[in-house]
Design goal:
Length: about 170
Amino acid sequence: VQTCALPICDGFFTGRQFQCFEKLGALPNGQGRYLRINQQYEKLFHRSRQQVEGKTDHDLFPSKVADAFRANDLQVIERGTPMEFEEVVPQDDGLHTYISNKFPMFDATGSVYAVCGISTDITEHKHTETVLRQAHDKLEQRVQERTAELADTNEALQIEIRERQTALERL
């Protein structure tokens, strides 16, 4: 596991520091144009820094995905505070779900000039969550079925007990 300190230089991660994130990292400006990406981004999306910088999400991703990314970035810009989002991204092997921590980058005047996003792939966690939810639902259904069976059996036994008591009273 690679580790690094993350000092900020003049309000902006230096290239080397931004590259040392093992997570997916991207830095679009306030207009949505990428100022910087890290090596993990290059690796996952098979695009070099030169191919991505200056482009927008709409240049790089399907419209629905790009719209979601941009909407999230705009929320961060409008609020001026860090936010966390669950984002779905197409990759070579299908859709992946990420937890994206996004935070505003401020210039010397206090204006947001970019949004830094650091994203963690939680696809396996989401799959496990789905499997657990399905197992829970299946178990819950079985419990309801078994409870109904037990209630029917209990009712049948109560009827039989009453019938035997009636028969005994007649004797």
